[in-house]
TrEMBL record:
Keyword Translocase: yes
Gene3D superfamilies: TPP-binding domain
One Gene Ontology cellular component annotation held by this UniProt entry: plasma membrane
GO molecular function, one term: proton-translocating NAD(P)+ transhydrogenase activity
TM stretches of this protein: 6-23, 35-51, 57-75, 87-106, 126-148, 168-188, 194-215, 222-242, 248-266
Name listed for the protein in its UniProt record: NAD(P) transhydrogenase subunit beta
Length: 472
């Protein structure tokens, strides 16, 4: 029986890895997700077989049913505009579950002193359990704040306690680690009071709140990725404590992939992960454009003028942002692109690594509208093309097209790599209003010569442009 369980786990791990490989591109992402889901189902069955006390099966199956009932409806009904919030929430639930497992094991084993019925647990088991409790609690409460910021229930700007922010975080971390050390020492001396595990969970939970609250909206994609990595690592640590191979492998896969993604996104913003965690960027005060000495004016345009510009262009680059997601304009953009391509215009899509509210947000939206993956160009691959592009159509992308990041040393985003939209011969920006982006920073591109603004709902505006193209 043990050999069967081992084989099933190996098959499940292989499917996890193969499914993850499929997530590298929109064309294979759905299939990869399904493969990984089947792998998880096999791992669950293997775990049930491994548990010889069938009386526990009822509780496990009941938990699965509750999870399906609570998880499937929002996953099916949530629109792509709210998908980042859902990802943050689901990720937080995973971290919270790991923290609860650690707490449960502490209570079940009298402070780890009789772990799994064996006196004197090994140091890796104790350390794994306490690590899972700390990181899982941080991940849950931090993800909850990320969810509320993305949902705009909390403001996207940094929320801090001023100069006391970092000392407060340090004190909370020290408190959580100190309580964990006390538990670890007491585990070999007959157990410790339940008070200490509560100190670990509460201090780590408050730390999760105080770490994410000061982080502004522009950094939320990186925060989601970082918290996802933490949840994976905490699950792996819990797997070590529970001697559950499936949790160890799955947790390490999530933790490793999340860490790599977080690092890549931080590099894309030209910021270090410690600087992001320190907070203070994204959602701060409005930064004026460099050289702004008086009132600035914008040039408004119409759907007809935009259609004429693009119809007679050699190349058009579409820059999608969160405004495209809000308006659900991806299908309208695809229809417009088909008309332009029929007229001999080359259409490409420029994707900034942190556009939208989560990693890969824009890629998923465009893939949903059957936009060719080959037409989606990453920032490093497309930036040199803007200088020879006739028209760039910016749809709700604010911060990732802001030339202040390149030209204004006083800007909060100075040094962040951006899409070189301002180098295009003509720029058309689709926006509802002149409000700043999620980072709360003014964009001088909107006032530049060669830029015109097409105000209104993005989907409606693109549809109007499409109708005008049909008439040409």
């Amino acid at each position: 029986m043990n050999n069967l369980v081992s084989v099933m786990y190996i098959v499940a791990f292989g499917m996890f890895i193969y499914g993850l490989m499929g997530l590298t591109g929109p064309k294979t992402a759905v299939r990869g997700n399904k493969i990984a889901a089947v792998g998880m189902a096999i791992a669950v069955i293997a775990t049930l077989i491994h548990i010889r006390d069938t009386s526990n099966w009822i509780i496990i199956v009941l938990g699965l049913v509750v999870g399906v009932v609570l998880g499937v409806p929002p996953a099916r009904r949530t629109k792509m505009t709210a998908m980042p919030q859902l990802v943050a929430l689901f990720n937080g639930v995973g971290g919270g579950t790991v923290a609860l497992i650690a707490w449960s094991e502490f209570l079940e084993t009298s402070g780890f002193s009789d772990f799994h019925g064996e006196p004197g647990p090994t140091s890796p088991v104790i350390i794994g359990s306490l690590f899972a409790a700390i990181i899982g609690s941080i991940s849950f409460w931090g993800s909850l704040i990320a969810f509320l910021k993305l949902q705009e229930t909390l403001p996207g700007r940094p929320i801090t306690v001023g100069k006391l922010q970092q000392p407060l975080n340090a004190i909370l971390l020290i408190a959580a680690v100190a309580a964990a050390v006390i538990i670890g020492i007491g585990a070999s001396d007959g157990g410790v009071s339940q008070l200490w595990i509560l100190v670990v969970l509460v201090a780590a939970g408050i730390l999760g709140l105080t770490v994410v609250l000061p982080i502004g909206g522009a950094d939320m994609p990186v925060v989601i990725s970082l918290l996802n990595a933490l949840t994976g690592l905490s699950a792996a640590a819990a797997g070590l404590a529970l001697d559950n191979t499936a949790m160890i492998v799955a947790g390490m896969i999530v933790g490793a992939s999340g860490t790599i993604l977080t690092n890549l996104m931080a590099k894309a913003m030209n910021r270090s992960i410690p600087a992001i965690v320190a907070g203070g960027f994204g959602g701060g005060g409005v930064a004026a454009a460099a050289g702004d000495g008086g009132e600035r004016t914008v040039t408004a345009t119409s759907a007809a003028d935009a259609a004429i510009q693009m119809a007679y262009a050699n190349q058009v680059i579409v820059v999608p942002g969160y405004g495209l997601a809000v308006a659900q304009a991806q299908h309208a953009v695809k229809d417009m692109a088909k008309l332009l391509e029929a007229k001999g215009v080359e259409v490409k899509y420029a994707i900034h690594p942190v556009a939208g509210r989560m990693p890969g947000h824009m890629n998923v939206l465009l893939a949903e509208a059957d936009v060719s993956y080959d037409a989606m160009k990453e920032m490093d691959d497309i930036n040199d093309e803007f200088a020879r592009t006739d028209v760039t159509l910016v749809i709700g992308a604010n911060d990732v097209t802001n030339p202040a990041a390149r030209n204004d040393p006083s800007s909060p985003i100075h040094g962040m790599p951006i899409l070189n939209v301002d180098q295009s011969k003509s720029v058309i920006v689709l926006k509802r209003s002149m409000n700043s982006g999620f980072a709360g920073i003014d964009n001088p591109l909107f006032f530049a010569t060669g830029t015109s603004m097409l105000f209104g709902d993005a989907k409606k505006s693109v549809s109007e442009v499409t109708e005008e193209l049909k008439a040409l």
